[in-house]
Amino acid sequence: MISIPTASLASFSQREEMVDRTKSKVLIREYNEDKDAKMVRKLERNCEGGTKKVVSIFTNMTGDPLSRIRFFPLHVMLVAELLDTRELVGVVRGIIKNMGTLSGSFLKMGCILGLRVSPTYRRKGVALRLVTAAEEWMVRNGAEYAFLATEKNNGASKNLFTIKCNYVNLSSLVIFVQPTSSLTKQISTDIKIEKVDIDLAISLYRRTMRTKDLYPLDMDVILKEKLSLGTWVCYYKEEGWLNLRSKVNNEDLINNNETSRSWVIFSIWNTCEAYKLQVRKSQLLRFLLTTLNHAREKVFPCLKMWVSSSDSLCRPFGFLFIYGIYGEGVNLGELMESMWRFTSRVGEAMRDCRVVITELGFGDPLANHVPQTDSMSCIDDLWYTKRLSSHGDENVDELMMNGQVRNVFVDPRDF
C-alpha cells in the first residue's frame, strides 16, 4: 500500500523549483543490506505517526526490511540517499512475477509493494523518482506491466499514480477484517473441514484458477512456502467430497454437471512469522500519512475501532490471511462462516495472532457469502496498473482490453 500526503499550498512553480533543487541532491540506488538496514529502520520510525486524538498503527519488520519481498525470486529495494549527508530519505520495494489470465495468456508483472518518503522531503519529487526507478528495474527484467494497490479514499496516492505516473484502474476489491476473539460460536456438526495434502491442493488450485481473471502462475511455490499453514476443504458431511477427488483425477473440476454438492477450498497464510503490527496511543503522534507496506494501511481503519476495547492490540501482533478461496454449490453461506470460525480458532491458538483477514475481487461470487457480523469490517481497495512494455502488438493491451478485471486471485505475498 502506498500513501502520499495531501498537497501543500505552495504554487506549482515553487514546487517545481524545489523538485529541481532536490533532484541534484538525492541519489536513487539499490538498498545495501549490510550498511542500510539501520538507516531504513530509522526512516520507518520517522514515518510513523497519528493525530493527538487517534491511535496509530505501525509495522514491526523484526529487523529485516526485506522480509516480505524475499518470497519472490525477482525483487528489489531502492533507497533515496542525500548526497551530502548520506541520509536515507525514501524507499520503495518492488517484485516481478508471472501471471495468468482468464483468456489463457501469460503476463510478466511487476508490483510496487511499498513507497515511503521522509516527512521533510515530501512534495519534492522524491516519490516520483523512486517509482520511476522501480519501473525501470522492472523493464530491465522483462516486466510488461506494473501494478500497485491503494485505498479507495486515498486521493493523494491516486493522483500521484494516475496523473504523474499514468496508471489506470485495474480492479476494485474488498478487504474483510475480523478479530479472532469475536468468533465464539461453534462450527456446525453437519460440516466437516478437512486438511488436504499439498499435492492435492496444487491440483485443485490449478483447476480452480481457470475461473480467475488474473492469478499467479507459481501457486505451488506459494503453497510450499513456510508461511502457508496449509489448505483445507469445507463441506457438508452428508454430501461428502469423494467425487471432488475423482473430478481432480479426471481434470473435470470446473463446470461439472453435478452442482448439488457444496464445498469451499481455502488456504491460510501466517504473517506472524514475517512481520507484526502494533497499535499505539499517544498525545504527540502525527497523522498517519505514510505506510511501510500494503497490509499496514489496509488494517489500520479497522483496528482503530477495536483498540479501545482490546489492550492486547497495543502489543505487537500478527494476523492470518485467508487466500485461494473458491467454492461450488448452492449452500455456501454456512460453509464460508465455518471457514472464518475455523481460521479464528487457528489464530487464537497462536500467541501473537489477533486478526483474520481476506481480500476478494468485487466480481468474486464468494464476496457475497462472507459473514456479515458486527465485528466484521470492510475496506474498499483499488488496484492500478501501467503498461511498461510489450513483446507483441503495441496496440493490443491484453490486461485492459476487456475493461476492469473482476475476479482476481489475491497473492498473500503481496498483502
Task: Outline the fold blueprint.
Elements: H1 12-23, E1 26-30, H2 33-46, E2 55-60, E3 74-82, E4 88-101, E5 106-117, H3 126-140, E6 145-151, H4 155-164, E7 168-179, E8 191-196, H5 198-208, E9 214-216, H6 219-224, E10 228-236, H7 242-249, E11 263-270, E12 276-281, H8 294-307, E13 318-328, H9 333-348, E14 353-361, E15 377-387
Parallel strand pairs: 5-6, 13-14
Antiparallel strand pairs: 1-3, 2-12, 3-4, 4-5, 4-9, 6-15, 7-14, 7-15, 8-10, 10-11, 11-13
Protein name: N-acetyltransferase domain-containing protein
Pfam families: Acetyltransf_1 (PF00583)
GO molecular function: acyltransferase activity, transferring groups other than amino-acyl groups
List keywords for this structure.
GNAT_dom; two-stranded antiparallel ribbon; 26% helix; Aminopeptidase
Report on this model:
- This is N-acetyltransferase domain-containing protein.
- InterPro entries: Acyl_CoA_acyltransferase, GNAT_dom, Plant_NAT.
- With 415 residues, the protein is α+β, with helices and mostly antiparallel strands.
- It folds into 2 domains: 149 residues, Gcn5-related N-acetyltransferase (GNAT) (Aminopeptidase, 3-Layer(aba) Sandwich), CATH 3.40.630.30; 195 residues, Aminopeptidase.
- It has 9 helices and 15 strands.
- The longest helix is centred in the last third of the chain and has 16 residues.
- The protein is globular.
- The termini are close together.
- The N terminus is likely disordered.
